[in-house]
């Protein structure tokens, strides 16, 4: 080790030692790499898949079924005449006896409470329809 006695005569500017700073940055990078998850996680979604076989025409149920719930406790199935809630169960069972994989859409009047809509959804679930969608205006 050599010691300088200062006989050079010039002013030396102080120099910053960056080696500890680089060490701290490398440690922080390693910590963040360990803390962050390796794979991003998202919500599970059902993505439409192309059909494996050609689609057949189904005679039992139409492709889109819309249930409209009115304020007087009647339900209209597509464009048919409105029926009471008691008859809806048997009507849906007859319509979807072989094809319960269809989606039905439920639309309600603006003045209805959600309790009435939920009752129609419960009837559809009781028939075996698992895919029930709500329609908005």
Question: Care to describe what's here?
Answer:
By secondary structure, the protein is α/β, with parallel strands linked by helices. The protein has a domain at 65-134: Nucleotidyltransferase, domain 5 (2-Layer Sandwich), CATH 3.30.420. It has 3 helices and 5 strands, in the order H-E-E-E-H-E-H-E. The protein has a 5-stranded mixed sheet. It is elongated.
SSE inventory with pairings:
Elements: H1 19-35, E1 65-69, E2 74-77, E3 83-84, H2 85-95, E4 103-108, H3 114-127, E5 131-134
Parallel strand pairs: 1-4, 4-5
Antiparallel strand pairs: 1-2, 2-3
Name the helicity range: 25-40%
Question: Number of DSSP helices?
Answer: 3
Low confidence ranges:
57-61
* Biggest β-sheet description: 5 strands, mixed
In angstroms, what is the radius of gyration? 35 Å
Helix/strand order, N-terminal first:
HEEEHEHE
Tell me, what's the shape? elongated
Question: In the CATH hierarchy, what is the class of the domain at 65-134?
Answer: Alpha Beta
Number of strands: 5
* Class from helix and strand fractions: alpha/beta
Strand order of the largest sheet: 3-2-1-4-5
Q: What share of the residues does DSSP label as strand, in percent?
A: 15-25%
Write the CATH architecture name of the domain at 65-134.
Answer: 2-Layer Sandwich
* N→C terminal distance: 85 Å
CATH fold category name of the domain at 65-134: Nucleotidyltransferase, domain 5
